Amino acid sequence: MVKSSLGVEGSAAARAELLEHLFVPGVPTLWCPSLTHYTSDGAIDGHRIAAHLRRLAQDVKGFLIPGSTSDGWELSEQEFWTLLEVALQQARSLKLHLLIGVLKADAREALTLAEKVVEHIKQKSHQSDLVTAFMESRVCGIAICAPRGKEVSQEDMERGLTAVLETGVPVALYQLPQVTQNEIGSQLAATLAERFPNFVLFKDSSGADRVVLSGKNLGGVFTMRGAEGNYVQWLRGAGGAYDGFLLSTANCFADKLSQMITHADADEMSEARPLSDKVTGVINEVFQLVQPVREGNVFTNANKAIDHFLAYGPRATELPGPRLHAGNRLPDAIIRQTGAVLEKYGLKPGEGYLGDERPR
C-alpha cells in the first residue's frame, strides 16, 4: 500500500523515478484511445485492430485501450478481456506503451476490475512485482474516472480514487464530465498527486481545463489534453498548459498531429498552426455529420467514418460502413459526406492501409 508521508517533493521525486522505469525513452507526447473494430457478426476483430495499430505505431507510441473512443463504457466483460489480449499482443509486438482503461461508473467496480487487471498482468508476465510485470508487458498503468453522478462530492470522489491508488498500481486519472457528470477538482488532483507517487498521468477531456489552468502543483504528473480542436495552443512547448495530448483524432490524423508537435517543439509555429487548423476543420465538420447517429458517441462515430476511408481508400463508398458496438453500421450517406469533407481538406487517401481486403 502506498503511504501518504512523502510530501510534495518526495512524491514528485518518486513519481519521476517511476516514470523513468515505465517509459523508455520518455513519456510520449501523443497518445491515442484507439478504435475497437468489429466483424460483421459483432465479434471483436483482432485482425482489423492489429492493422489499425500497425499504421498508427509509426507516429503514436502511447495508447489508451479501451478508452471512450474504444467503446470502453459499452464493452461486456468478455469483450473487455478479448480486446485487452489483442492490445497486449500488439503492445509487445510494436513496442507501444499501453494504458488500460478501467472505465466503471462505480468506484467499487473500478477497484475490483483494477485488481483483476493487475493479477492478469502478473500471471501473463510471470512476474510477482507489479512494476516489473507492467514493464515486461509494455503496460504503463490503468486509467480510471471519478465515480459517476452529479451528487458525488469531492470527498466521495477522493475515497473512490484513493482505494485504487492505494493498490500501488500506476494510475492515470481521466477527467470525463461528459460521462461522469462531475469533475475532479484542482485541489483534489493536487492532494492526490502529493499523496500518491503512483498517480502518474492526468487526462482532461472536459474542454474546461480547470485543473491545469488552476496553477496547482501536480508534482510532475504528466498532463494530457483530450478535448479536440485548436490543438497547438495547448502544448507546453508552444506556451500552453499541457505536456501532451490523448486524442481520439489520433486514430485518423496521427501523422499530422505528430508533425504539429514536432514543429511546435522547435518553435516553428508557422508550420504547426496550419496542421492544427486543418485537423480542427475536418473533425468539426465530421462531428456535425455524425450527430444524428444515436448509438455510440460522437468521437467514436466520427473517427470510424474517417478511418473507413483510411482503411479502404477509394473503395470506401462501395463497402458497408463500419459497424458500431450497438450492432448497426454508419449510414452510407454519412460515409459519402465524410469523403467529401476529406477531399475538401486534401486528406482523402489514394489507397487504404488494408489494401484489397474487404470487411470481415
Task: Please give a structural write-up.
- By secondary structure, the protein is α/β, with parallel strands linked by helices.
- The chain has a single domain, classed as TIM Barrel.
- It is 47% helix and 10% strand.
- It has 13 helices and 8 strands.
- The chain has an 8-stranded parallel β-barrel, surrounded by 6 helices.
- α11 runs antiparallel to α13 (332-344).
- The termini are far apart.
- The model has no long low-confidence stretch (mean pLDDT 95).
Secondary-structure arrangement, i.e. CATH architecture: Alpha-Beta Barrel
Low-confidence stretches: none
Strands, count? 8
Compute the number of structural domains. 1
Helix residue percentage = 40-55%
Instruction: Report the CATH topology name.
Output: TIM Barrel
Text of the CATH class: Alpha Beta
